[in-house]
Amino acid sequence: MTFREAVEHRVLVFDGAMGTQIQGLGLKASDFGGHEGANDLLSLTRPEVVEAIHGRYLAVGCDVVETNTFGASRLKLDEYGLGHRAYDVNLHAAAAARRAAERHATPEHPRFVAGSIGPTGLLPSSSDPVLSNITPDALERVFLEQARGLVDGGVDAVIIETQQDLLELRAAALAVDTCRREARRDVFVIAQPTLVDAKGRMLLGTELGAALAVLERLPVDAIGLNCSAGPAEMRESVRFLGEHCSRFVSCLPNAGMPENEGGRAVYRLSPDAFADALVEFVRDLGVDLVGGCCGTTPEHLRRLVERMGSLSPRRRARPRARPALASAIKAVPLDAEPRPLVIGERVNGQGSKKAKELLLAGDYAGLLRIAREQVDGGAHVLDVCVAIGERDDEAAQMRTLVELLVQAVDAPLMIDSTEPEVIEAALAVHPGRCIVNSVNLEGNGARARRVLPLVRRYGAAVVAMTIDEKGMALSAGRKAEIARRTLAIAAEYGVEPDAVVFDPLTFTLATGTDEYRGSAVETLEGIRRIKAENPGVFTCLGISNVSFGLSKPAREVLNSVFLYHAVQAGLDLAIVNPKDIRGYREIPEEDRALAEALVFDRHPDALARLVAHFAGKATAATARSTDVHEHAPVAERIRLQILHRRPDGIEALVDEAVALRPAAEVLTSVLLPAMKDVGDRFGAGELILPFVLQSAEVMKRAVGHLERFLERAEGTTKGKIVLATVQGDVHDIGKNLAKTILVNNGFTVFDLGKQVPVATIVEKAIEVGADAIGLSALLVSTSKQMPLCVQELARRRLAIPVVIGGAAINRRFAQQIVLLEDGTPYPGGVYYARDAFQGLELFEQIVVPERRQALWTATVAKALAQRVPPVATTSAVA
User: Fold this and answer.
1) Model pTM?
2) How remote is the C-alpha of 527 from its chain's centroid?
3) For 634-654, how does the pLDDT look when each residue is reduced to its tens digit (9 = 90+)?
4) Rounded to an integer, what distance in angstroms lies between the CA atom of residue 439 and that of residue 461?
5) Sign of CA dihedral 742, 661, 711, 692
6) Which residues pair with 472 in a beta bridge?
7) What are the angstrom distances between the C-alpha of 712 and each of 472, 745, 771?
């Protein structure tokens, strides 16, 4: 039976710590060949010692032992002047583990060897000049040498563990894959980052979702976690992997958090507590591979093996990998709702005069400023193009700029170049998952056949233009036909449909020629056909091309109208400057009608009418700077200020409103309806997400200023409330409003902010003795954190009431998640608040025992009557 067959059949148990066992033997420097503490060298100098340690773990029933090679790369062994022995150390270590495994193996209980590859001590994607002083190619060669020793020594699997830098982890995974293909052996590959903080991030700040987005597109068979923490600290991260990971999931925690005693790390988690935790991970979270890391002993593993023997877990159904891009920090789903994903277009020497000037001058600081402005303006992804005719060092400039962008912004990158060597230079130094722009079928697809292997190797996504030997496709039929051919070629190189983003091409409508008059209609229909005929693919457009050649005010309107209809047609990604786009309903009806007449080719003179209408007009931004609606009532001016995302002057308008009516009435009758208007337009698809977030910032300033006029209710606190916007959600205006109202009605509020992990919420509620928890979510994808919070509270036998709200939430969703996985109601209750004031009403009931019980009884009765799986739906912003 192979390792792969075994893990398909049952959960496998790895061994525990090697270093802890070696340290307990009291070995002398001579045992290490004169290099005291060089544990990896024992495989050469005292192989019987290493073999005996393997034997102790195998004797207690472990299925897998790891080789004593955690620090056996050439770079680590160079610290002892023995880098040249790297292959030999790994070869002998694998052989020692193989001998031990064979002695304990039986037909009924085969034993396996996993080759251990640890970090080199470098951080190649960091900005530190010493720690990053190695090229990706050199790093890959280091790991390839180590992998060859392990594979030639007979390992069944390779475990790349305790990794702190995604760039290093990718280099190791690619090296091991190269090695197993060279050897023509089915070596199972496990990739394990280590998380170092309470929010579940790697050393350089990489979130687990970003690591998963990268690793799922690399040649690895299992993804997991090890070291740095005990099971309790890993629980939420393991839960995340169990829910989202398309590969097998592994977990090898420490025996608790280390404690420093006299300069020595001590691990206090008992064998029974260790075994209980990992059994829970297998039974409830779907973990496939378990074992121990620092501080775990044969006794820890004995108890785990015993407990696993009585367990018959239902194996996890592994989901498909979610299509996502990733920066060095966070993941950005390609299939996120609401569409579109916005790609900032200004870090581009061919599309931006300013960017070109900065590239010519080598002014990278200036380029980083543009990048930050794009992200601040709402871009989810940044298009990066450094190709300019006046310089011939495109690859070098691209490499330098990408390395700097990795450190400067948390947005993923679109690598925009026609040259394969430039694309590879960028992909090689970016630790996340990029999207390549672009390939096409010109020259019988010759360039595509050079780029697609790079896309596959680095796990990237790719934009495919609907261009072939005949040129750019104008008709929807040609666009769809080229898309089908391109997808077939991508499949030849192992590029999945959900890694392909088709650009059906946008042509300018400013020429007025018959050839292009209907081009926008064909593009919109092309989007529909490409998505309908090629399930799983995405679509993308360079929006501003549609208006090229028109005046700036005409371009702003035409781009905005075209984007709106493209999204209705199914567009997923839009290359656009968010600052140049207006909400569909913000555009005056006459302007909108003229633009739509041109887009849909409704009149022969549609172009002439549009040009004449905008002649001499200013852009909306200029108009807004002069039109302050001075004749409108103050409530209407505040609404427009929030809707049009204009923070300047909002405080003065609030002062004016407070002079006319009580502050509380300004909040309830002016500010809240204004934000509801934004939410309604968002729900109707008239506003894109960046606009909602910018409106929320204006609202935040208005409420912050208004708070000084609000009188807090007198007396002692009515109750303690913990508020948080759930992990993955960057929008917190609803929560902030709730906080203001609760505080001003006598409650004590502990505001944890946004992007808050479940564990942090629960721990804070326990710490402060919370009477209730309030959770907010804007997106359907992040609303899934809410049932996780309820389940974690129940698991800890807590009964704290939970109030939920936000754009993705409705009453039915709350009624569904109040029922736990076993069908019993959560004792604390889960309640839906459609807005901040209904939240106040609920909290007022919760803090009175009799009213709380009546509320719980009524809510649970309705939930039991529903009894359907939880589904969040998009509604207005709460």
Assistant:
1) 0.81
2) 26
3) 999 999 998 888 888 999 999
4) 11
5) positive
6) 467
7) 65, 6, 20
